[in-house]
Queue: 2 jobs
Job 1
Amino acid sequence: MSVPTIGLIVEQRDASVIEQWDLTTSVYRRYDCGALVEERPFTDAELASVAKQAADAVRQANTVALLARARTAFTNNAAYLAKVAGGTATNADHIAQVPALTRQMQAVIRLIVGSDLLDATDDTATQASASIQTRAGG
């Protein structure tokens, strides 16, 4: 099972014990009073946890990106509606609005449903969640 490379070490300490999870090499280390007492590859549970955290980070970043797009879409839609209300909207404006609204709804659906739909932000991606589930053993 592979884990995405993140390039950091997570560490937990108490008075005499240091535990390290090296996310780059997928190796766990435990030190007692400064001496290395255990070093091993991540367990399947640790690998799954890292994969889930990576997927959650991607989903959070995609949520932020989709919300930013929603603000832009709101402004663009208001401009279109102003043209319609003012009687200046052209056939080209009406035709362009249909695919724009479809793309916007795809983003809104991703935000509402969440979960694996937030693995991507583009309008057609449906396979990204499969690769994350495979890495996590799901």
Job 2
Amino acid sequence: MIDGKIKLLFSILVFSIGLSACTGQSKKAQVFEVIGVANDISKEEEKIIRSNKGNTFNPVGAIKPASSISVAPASSNANAIVLRIHKKESLYSAISRLHKISGYTRLIYDLSFGAPSPDKIKSSKDYTTKTDQELLPQIEVVFKDSYPGVRLFAAGDVGGHALVITDKPYPSWHSLRIYDVPKGTLMDAAANLALTIGWTLEAENGYSAKNFSIDNSYPIVIAPGDPKTSFTSLLSTYPAKAQLRPNTRTATIVERVLPKQN
């Protein structure tokens, strides 16, 4: 009788695990229903691309394995930090001080080409953050008079969360992660990024432009569930774009024709 009950419980457990696995696979398959290509570039960006100096991020760190996309939850006492910001203090100064007293893994400057540098974005007033409100929006607002597009957010990083300073309209702030582009070539980086977000880069692709060399690893912001955002982050400063096929989760890198120079 006891043996029969044990066998019954074991059967129910196996069925439950199998059902959970199937459900997880179903949800995962629905995540990647986005198709798109990299955005067009401005003439100023074109000049940088042609001189092969398109890296707008500070080179930092090294390539992380795909599994590193899983991160620890944000610190529950992040809002308990009190930061005093002085009138006309630069965003760079305030954020650097915050980094020293917070648990953020690193600072990522993800500003668009042509945006003012963080040391030129100034606070409009003296301000002390309040512990009963979210920390980053409070800091953000005192710098918006100087640069209205600035946005601060925490993105998943290896071992915690990185503090990102950006002006880009990301579609889903809560799903963003930091990805370290490895040294090597652009095509190698694209293949590794595809693997990281659960996609595959086709071996036979239409990319006929120069396969740019990447001399230093640098971080970019990606959204693992949004391949358009992820590939755009990697390719936006190169004459290349990604053609995506969600039904097979495959990507092809093709040349993006640059505007003619005057």
